[in-house]
Design goal:
Rossmann fold; 7-stranded antiparallel beta sheet; 22% strand; single chain; alpha+beta; 6-stranded mixed beta sheet; 25% helix
Length: 429
């Protein structure tokens, strides 16, 4: 589970911004929205957090920072010497940040109960700082610490890092965790942290597509997704999947593309889903996916991720959860993560939204509601729990007060200016 994420100098995020997922109080209002067991140090993570804010306020950039961290762990280890780190996107609206390091720090707990803090800072072509700390109790134990001038021979290791191989050759642009964590010879605590960051965080952006290959290979998952869609008033009786091999035969690949990658792409391109609907005469007809509504397509895209995350644990990150979706559907997804019978492993949902209906005291606690706001081109993030608790209580009408502008994080619209602009374009103006 994610406990806290700190970001600086990434896209619209200039100064240090901390995004916390630990409960301010482990009991009281909506106690089921909190993980049932604490992390070391007595910290109780939240099962979901929603981020509100105007367009271009920084919500997506905060979620993309999670993806940047995953890129460093998953892919930076394969970079050749001198190659650029693709996720280096510093804040460009201040002179002192354009070439400064991007800094990311994630505090998280893995299924075995261990709590980690992974911090990394990087510029375009090198890692300047990197460390991994372990909390077996409330006290911290450093596993490794890398400075800007450290090589693979001079990187520092803490006394708790025992067993296996510790030193792995790396270039300046390779994260040590990306190199060591991918080796079976590395100490177990390193591999555990690596595997969590690589596999247990699933990020779904606005335009991302979900691979259909898993549904082809996992009949049980396909049936579960099919039944899920039939139970939420989509009109779908079931979902079928077939493979049209001929359709993928004419794909042209670069000459240097690996054969296994080409096979995967051909396989993915050949898959087709059919959605079965019952007619008014009790007959069955089929539609392709592009004939379904935008909301149904969104649910179909989300359903495998929701099912797997709730089953296996981990973190599901969704940008614009409510996009093309009825508010009741978005509410259902959040409720599933809060339900201890459905989510016994403490899976987490992190989402951005514009849907104020979800800002309900029956659905979310104060510490689960976050806001993004931009000032002078820089984003800041704050929680509803940061407001005066004597004035903003669990019984307060969160959504209405947000709409009234009491919490900020709403668009500043110059209506008179817009009217004047459009009047100028009238033929009789």
């Amino acid at each position: 589970m994610i406990i806290e994420f700190t970001v600086s100098n990434f896209r619209s995020i200039k100064d240090d911004q901390s995004f916390s997922l630990y409960a301010a109080k482990p009991s009281g209002h909506l106690a089921l929205n909190i993980a049932p067991t604490p992390a070391p140090g007595g910290i109780y993570p939240l099962k979901s957090v929603g981020i509100y804010g105007a367009n271009a306020s920084g919500k997506t950039n905060l979620l993309q920072a999670f993806r940047a961290l995953q890129y460093l762990v998953a892919r930076s280890g394969s970079l050749k010497d001198g190659e650029h780190i693709d996720c280096y996107e510093p804040h460009l609206l201040a002179k002192n940040t354009k070439n400064a390091p991007v800094r990311l720090a994630l505090e998280f707990q893995i299924p075995n109960g261990f709590r980690y803090l992974y911090a990394i800072a990087f510029v375009q072509n090198r890692i300047v700082e990197e460390r991994l700390d372990l909390y077996r109790t409330a006290r911290v134990a450093n596993l490794f610490d890398r400075g800007e001038n450290d090589t693979w021979e001079s990187i520092k290791f803490g006394p708790f890092l025992k067993g296996g191989t510790r030193k792995f050759p790396f270039f300046a642009n390779n994260a040590y965790l990306s190199k060591a964590g991918n080796s079976a010879d590395a100490p177990e605590v390193i591999r555990d942290a690596y595997n969590y960051l690589l596999k247990d965080m699933v990020h779904l952006g606005i335009s991302d597509e979900v691979s259909s290959e898993e549904l082809l290979e996992n009949e049980d998952l396909l049936q579960t997704v099919s039944q899920f869609l039939s139970l939420v008033d989509t009109g779908i009786a079931r979902v079928g999947l077939y493979q049209d091999v001929d359709r993928a035969k004419n794909i042209i690949f670069p000459p240097d593309m690996p054969e296994d990658l080409m096979r995967r792409i051909r396989k993915e391109a050949s898959l087709r889903f059919l959605f079965f609907h019952q007619t008014d005469t009790a007959e069955v007809t089929t539609f392709p996916i592009n004939a379904e509504s935008a909301g149904t397509r969104k649910l179909f895209k989300l359903a495998p991720l929701i099912v797997n995350t709730l089953k296996d644990g981990g973190v599901l990150i969704i940008d614009e959860l409510d996009r093309s979706m009825h508010p009741h559907m978005a509410e259902l997804i959040i409720q599933l993560f809060h339900d201890p019978e459905v989510n016994p492993g403490g899976a987490q949902l992190i989402f951005s939204t514009h849907n104020a209906n979800l800002m309900s005291r029956e659905l979310l606690r104060r510490d689960q509601i976050w806001f993004a706001e931009k000032s002078n081109g820089a984003s800041r993030f704050f929680s509803l729990d940061d407001f005066d608790k004597k004035k903003v209580t669990p019984a307060s009408p969160f959504a209405r007060w947000y709409a009234e502008g009491r919490f900020g994080a709403i668009p500043s619209i110059d209506y008179s200016g817009v009217v004047k602009l459009l009047r100028k374009r009238r033929p009789d103006a």
